[in-house]
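User: Here's a chain of 314 residues. Predict its fold as tokens.
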Amino acid sequence: MIYKLPAPRLGIDKVSDNKRKARLRVEGLPIGISHTLGNSLRILLMSSIPGYAPREYLLSETKSKYDSPRGVYQSGTEIEQAVKACRAVPKNKHEGFTLSVNKIVNGDLKLGDFTSDIEVEILNPDHVILNTEEEIRIVMYIRFEHGVGFLKEDYVETNRKLVLDGGKSLVVDADFSPVVFANYKILENYPSVKQETLLIDIETNGVISPEVAMSTASRILSQYGAFLTAFEAVTIRPESISTEGIEPTARELALEKTPIEDLVLSLDSYNSLKDMGIRSLRDLVREKDLITEKIKEEVIRKLDEIGFIVEEIK
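Assistant: Prediction complete.
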């Protein structure tokens, strides 16, 4: 039987002046569906929307992220934080692009001073990268990459694209998600009408609008939901799945190599385990249900003995 959902009514309650914040409204949802949709969409909005983020940079006279060029006010770590806050997006989809600057700077170096070989929209051109005390030539490159989610600086061995005077680029944590905030609330319209209204607040970094972010998250949810409908055709049963030929994990090998003699056990417990054929920590974990039953039986037997003795005394 196919459950037919009523079509909800969509609306936009408010949008900020910079069009990065919006409250989206979904009306006429059956009771209970709102929480399911709201929670699923919130997670997808925060973690699964692809975007662009700085991944590496090169700056003249620096060899580590703790260095800064002579005559620059900021420390290396402050410059790194400024690089992470850079926002730019190509006019056409690319796997990555590079912003560069080579100029005499006396004062502020802003992201708007950078150029690229491809057509790029810089979303925060007034963002300050560094300040100089005097006239200094600054040569700097910032490499943006396309991705999903969060990628730590040391998570993978990055294939660095930037090289300057034989020096390697400095890699930074990359937060690709264009959504910086997402949350939801439910307005209950019953008992007069047995329906709910879902309100979703979304804020982006300007790479995409809240409306586009919502549409993208909804498509992701719809596509994976469609994949799961194929379970109707799945006929493999769990008991028919063979584990033969599967290599043991490192944890299983460690458990196998740990004999029960290495455990802090009383002599009585040790002898009981030996009697049950338990030789290693892996056996102990694998046969925990059997051991639990044995313990229950032993406790019941001892309680029966105690009860018999008490009755004899009476």
